Request: fold
Amino acid sequence: MHSIGHDAETNTLAIRFKSYDGKATSLYHYSNVTADDFAALRDAESIGSHFHKQIKPHDKKYPYVKVEAAPAA
Reply:
């Protein structure tokens, strides 16, 4: 992951993924992510592992939308 952020008012998790060479790529927004959920992700020993185990497989609980294919130039 390139970067993560959270909007506590809307319970939205923002994740910017990265390519294998480390460059920022797609931006996704995940809904229903509480501040506690975000804190667990942010503070995890491995953010990627936590995301792939606790958020990504639960798309009914945490529906998502692709906001941007790649960052604006």
